[in-house]
Amino acid sequence: MQFLDRLGAESVSIAAQGNVPLYSDDPEAPEFWRQCRLQALFPVDAEPDILIACLRNRLGATLAESLSIDELGDQDWSASGHAGLEPMLFGAQLCVCPSWVTAPPGRRVLTLDPGLGFGTGSHPTTALCLDWLATRDLHGCALVDYGCGSGILGLSAALLGADVVWLVDVDAQALVASRANAERNQLQDRMRILPPGVAPDRPVDLLVANILLNPLLDLAPHFARLVRPGGSLALSGLLATQAAECLAAYDPWFSMGGMTFRHEWALVQGLRRSTASAG
Question: What pLDDT, on a 0 to 100 scale, did the predictor assign at position 167?
């Protein structure tokens, strides 16, 4: 997936092809499929011949036989984006809901439409993070949402009781989207929107980051500085096969706990140690 991203893919998705999954003896292990379909969306000015050549070189002749490129015609993406979207429920309290759908009663509702910035709750890694947040007591806590995208994780934390939330992203457009979503949900007073080079003015109680493995590995020392001793950390954006490497990278600063899986994706979590380990 990172290779496709370097080639200029605007989005990448993995889906089961066929309905014959492989299972582990471990009931907590994720599902895998004998065959998967990897689909990437590229801009209209991408060079198909170059893409095919790069992929064939990377995959080898056998796997490259299944490659295909299709051109998407013009359509009403706004209307098609509304189709099939429903309220999404996390824990006993939280609901993430598009503005044109009636939310179920008795929930704290975050109104969020597909649009600028990644994250509407439908991707498994976002859902893993929302489930993690929805099972914690967030009242009065300070939290960092690093790689905030649409702001969905930080805004949900505020709905669930967080006192102050720092939203951080390298993408300026994501910060614009996060600010707009905060105002739409009347949560702007508890949001602090920051570029990556600016740190919160105090250590935080929780940090959640839904990004990719390599940035997470690089950011481990920085995250250790942001989280107070005894504070919590949740990291996603990881394939299940990458979780162990991420756990090892954070072990010098955090007492890393269990892993949670949804399909081929993983979330890892930990508690900030009072001092770094000797290893």
Answer: 96
